[in-house]
# Entry
Amino acid sequence: MATSTSSAAHPKKRGNSLSSIAPMLCIISGYLIWRFLIGADGNFTTPDPAGGFWPHQEGARSGLARMYQGGIIVPLLIGALLTVVTFVIERFLVIRKATGRRNIDMFIRKMQYRLANEEIEAALWECDKQKGSVGNVMKAGLQKYREMTTAELDREQKVLAIQKELAEATALELPKLEKNLVFISTIASVATLMGLLGTVIGMITSFGALGNSGGSEAAQQLSQGISEALYNTALGIGTSAFSIIMYNLFTTRIDGITYGIDECGFTLTQHYTALYKAEG
# Structure
């Protein structure tokens, strides 16, 4: 039991380190992109020479430069997008490794064939070849299966021992699959609201400027301000849509792996039960 606890603790520590550092670094990177790349002096006809944290650049030369004028919510949205991209890459690598080297359905069929012919060593070799979460859980179950064939216990105790081993192996694998998905799902919900907040702030600023001036110049400033504010909405909706798509993709992949784990466990316990019934 001590070994299982130690194995579970190390992945959790690495995951906590990434989840605490990555969002902060992404927000800082979002500000740097907004301030020094999008908001570079060369992107505006009338740059603010004073610079500082939030220089008031005017006369955007491109649509990307107008995004800078969307306000201080823009770097937060860029940071949110970078956070999603970071965890999408991390989850993709983890889930790809957890899937194993071959198709899960094919692996399950091979396990059923090996068990039907009582080829336990060959089945263990298949697990080493498959790797991934399904292979790891099946290997743990097969090792307990082999141990129970010589144990002096009744059939019910042996089946319970195999089921317990499968449950413990599954408990070590599943948290690794679902870790950090909360960041993607949270940003999927919050990004649109952040974009709307930036739009509302921009609209307030635009109508405030309209009240202090008049004529055609005021109408021009208002239309420009609304255009800049809507960049927040576009960026927020785009980030949210990307997050939702990737979250659904990952949960579908995880469901497939979970199904494979459950199917392997069911196959192993059912075969052992049937074997001992036949012997009885």
